[in-house]
User: Fold these one by one.
Assistant:
Number 1:
Amino acid sequence: MRIEEDCIGKLAIDEDVLYGIHTTRALTNFPISTERTDPLLFKSLIIIKKAAAQVNAAAGTLDVRKSRAIVAACNSLLMGEHQDALVAPAIQGSAGTSVNMNVNEVVANLASAELKTIRVHPNDDVNQSQSTNDTYPTAGKMAALQALPPLKQALTFLIKTLDAKAHEFADVVKVGRTQLQDAVPTTYGHSFHAYASLFRRDLARLTRAAADLQAVNLGGTAIGTGLNASPYYRSHIIRQVNQLIDLQLKPAEDFIDATQNCDVLVAFSGAMKGLATDLSKVANDLRLLSSGPQAGLNELHLPAKQGWFIDYARKGQILSFQKSLIKLPFR
């Protein structure tokens, strides 16, 4: 065991862990759930730490030897090493401080181990010119931007597939219904074209919301004024992050506004929730239209898929429960 101390007091830390006292406190302070922080969020924070070390060294505010050691530590983490040290829980308090300090402490200990005779401090060195209030929201936006391309690719494929079905079924007449009551004739071509139009709108909404995520407050530090960050750092940090990962980040028009308001993230969340709702609605439609085959509508024939079953015996009866299609869009 090793003893570390912060403003609260001393704490014994396991000798073989790379994180420190702040992370250890977080693990006991927030035992709310077992959900881990998303790896993309950790990755984005590590990229920010690497860029900050490079810019701070160029600004003359960080020892070059420490900068190189920090960069080397970040590189090892980005290559997938020491992932067991990134343990800060996803559900926490204090605006992401626990996750930020988890990264700071791990990077600092790795860098110190490389330098041997020079200690790298998690706050003074790794977190230099930064605050959780600008690194954490920037990392969150970076993580969302990295996760989005596969989703957009899948959504584009879905739209093309629905368009193809609309063409294939253009002349297949069906009953149009309102509140499940027979209304007027229509075609399955119209139905599938409507689905495609719905998801085209979702794709456009996601694209617009993602563009707003590219404006970040990195360099604004605690409240957006840039206190304790050098002018050189403030003017170069976002550019350096873009050198490390091409997300086309740009400085927010108003750093104080970007630091204290989350409307951009709310809008992106809303676009994602809208997509999930629309996927659920279409899945429900298809499930209903394929119901049967004897006592349901049985208008559509969906490809056979292996279901998930839980079988158990109770009073001589065998009961089976199959996950409904409604849950699939949210997986």
Number 2:
Amino acid sequence: MRPVAGAPRDVHALVRAWVRDGGDPVVVRTSGSTGEPKDVILSHAAVTSSARASLERLGGPGGWLLAMPVTGVGGLQVLVRSALAGLDPVLVDEHDGLAAAIDAIPGDRRYASLVPTQVHRLVEAGQVDALRSLDALLIGGAAAPPELLDALDGVRVVRTYGMSETSGGCVYDGVPLDGVRLRVDDTGQVHVGGTVLFDGYADAAATARVLRDGWFATADLGTIDAAGRLRVTGRSDDVVISGGVNIGLPAVTRALRGLDGVRDAIALGVPDDEWGARVVAFVVPDAGADAPPLHVVRDGVEASGLPRTWAPREIVPIAALPLLPGGKVDRVALRRR
């Protein structure tokens, strides 16, 4: 089996027939944002179960905006939901801007699915008004910063959690879709079960490491409250040990993004002979500005309420964070710099 590939309209025609008639599993290649990509095998039953549960949660079938690669699970699910609704998706690239594309979405209900980076760029471009006409805007693929959500006043935002192995988003605003089971083990690791799970990876050994007794062990950490609502607190690989200190990289990233003169940033751990690992800040400065010097960044991270031992030991100015086709930050590329 080969991963999904091809031009969006060509893939849509194939997906429409596959949704209607059934067939062999499809293969989706993960983004590989933190390491080597994996080929994920998804059955017809899993993919369509996810899509039907999504539409049920959103309020019914409708037309969809396609703004993500169809080679990834996010774009694939837009095609599947469109096929279930009997409607063609609207491709952003085929229209003169976002507003025109949204206006062209067919059906009684209109939906879009984007990653936070895409939404951030739309906010910066002053295109939030166009998003307000949607019946729902799904945001997934990565955690959406609170300040980004605040900028979407009047937009019905649905924060999704999921991955290729769960046929896309399987938890909406913390609540699992119908047919999805969640549990958190004693270490805080999130496990997902239910009808949306993948059959496995093309690599059987990799499958055995994460899929056991009907449960998929994610790389995410989280909690489940008394109402069954999931809160993702980080990733198991988002914690580095530097000089014997456990450092939560998402918290450092949030602190960096709040510094004056910083347009965007991410904190990553890189190997270090002395410290075991050191925290490096990849910083995109404001237009026309230089990145803040290291001592200013370290002071700012500490002023945000984090221990000074968590502050970056190196600053790497960069014009823009490299992104994978699905919109996630390419951490592997950054670590190679």
Number 3:
Amino acid sequence: MDRLILADTERREIKALLNVSMDIDLNETKDFELSVHRSAWDDTYQYGGYIFKPGTEIGGRIGRLNTDTALETVKVCGLTWRGMLNRKVIEPPAGQDYRRISGELHEVMKELIEPEFEGLFLVSEADTGVTVKNHKFERYTDLLSGIIKMLKSVKYKLRITYQEESQRAGYVLVEAVPIIDYSSQIELSSDSGLDFQLNDIRNGYNHMIVAGKGELAERNVFHLYAWPDGSIRKTPYYTGIDERVYVYENTSTETEEVEEKAREEFAELMNRQEFTMNTSDLQMEVGIGDILGGRDYLTGVYMAKPVENIIYTTDAYGTMNVEYQLEGED
């Protein structure tokens, strides 16, 4: 592993971290844990200080120290950069139901991110050439989820790297970049030396009755229907023996948001494909949001899934293991 750096609360570099083990979960728990041997401990590990590996997403801000005199190590823990974005909220403007935004991707990201972080997070100045128009964020969504969902709507993803500076403190560079669909370039199979599990579900629900607020005949009720292409529509396709009905009740969500929540729930219940891959031996560099695909030549089943999380672990000698988790994988 290249240098893992410890910096103070002003992001001034203190030292390279040697002989420490690390576990950093970028996008699920969104935190990191360093194990420092008690004999190597000193007061340079500060609350509000930083760790980072320059040029990568590996890094975050120290927020917790865990010490146990019965153990030989001290745990230094904190949030990843995504974890910090996750702790901010996109609020609707006063008097409005939703926050809406329009413009070039980096311009709108700059408006959302930079005021929250006092120079720590900087959005790229490059023009992506891609815009959103009147994009509506969910009410009080966290900043990370809101931005990822916005970018995904135009087939982009979030890229985060820590940038070193020679004359001033470094910063976290945030960029919007296109999602790479590796499944259209490289077909992974058992011939690649990778094991994976494919689950092709054809007996899911295809008719959802949505029951929202209200009582009895006055209750807000409408219907959603799954179609063979995976879309959700207001008109039915499956009937008779092939129809499978699910009742979704939601009396706590505002009426105008019920359909959005119902569609999200429906997508988890209808016909779908589940794909889990042992990616520990994956010999390619992929980012969160990129798409991997695999085929079982025996059954002919093929499917593709986006990478949802990356976990890095190192031992005290700096040997790194990388685990890629796909969407829907525990």
Number 4:
Amino acid sequence: MNQGLPLDFEQQIDQGHTAWTMGKFTEAVKHLTPMMEVAHLNPGAFVDNERGSAAVQKGLIALALSHNGIGDESAARATIGEILRTFPNEKMSAGTYGMAANKLFESVRLDLAGRGKGRLVIKPANAGGVVYLNERIDGVGTRTKDQLLPGEYRVMLQTGAQISRSHTVKLAANEDLTLTVDGGFDDAVRTKADWTGLGFASAADREKSEASYAATFGKSINATAVALIGIDVSNGRPSVIAALVKRDTGGELRRASIPLDASPSRDQLRGLARFLAGEDAGPGIEIHVAKPAKPEARVPDATVTTGEPAEPERPAEQPTTSGRWGGWKWMAS
């Protein structure tokens, strides 16, 4: 799981860079490779952080040339490709880095451009969001990038103080892709080592968006079915409640519960799962009227995978009666 940037991130970059300047290429690779990996896992750390971005640029150049120094041209070319996509104004001039480095850099640039450039349209779900492409500000609102070199790109959206998850787009040569980024959905998704689900700031937010977000989540991982499972108060009693959600609209297909007057048996829980799968309800399972999708609801297609989100702690809460799932705002999907 993502643990954030190390406190000595810039110092580690400096150490790797120094090793490269001294010709200690293997040592430089050992220092810089994990730093570049952790940087890509923490794109939000570079929002409004020019110093951090400069450290990444410095580290990538030293890493590319260190790979080349130990004879790993394939790794050197891959790293230069990342430099070209993230820092398109970088020239790796012969005056600064030498003729051999400049020749390699230009060879990679011409090779990638010769394959054919791609087109990426980035559409914020809400107008006014600031779009970041490979951790660098690209602009506000819908962005159309017509001349992108093929390869991997990371996209984030900032709306006010809210930063979305990082979306990874693998753009092929001559490919045309559209990515819609919903900051609200990204903020609701919670992933931890032992739990994945949706979290909302209020019962009203959950009632408005939970089912459609669950359907969007299902689409993003190519799930054939989506179910919401949680604990709520039903008919005055704490209950395990489950609903099968339509992937296209977020409306419910089936909904049932098991009262928690006593711990439910394994057979009851399996029976609840079988009910969602289309079988008749067994003993101890209460059937509810499934809630339709809201009139305006339409779940967008997921076109890319999402990166690591922030990991707020799951709060301890007690069930109360309000909204779709009562007071429990943490639901697994």
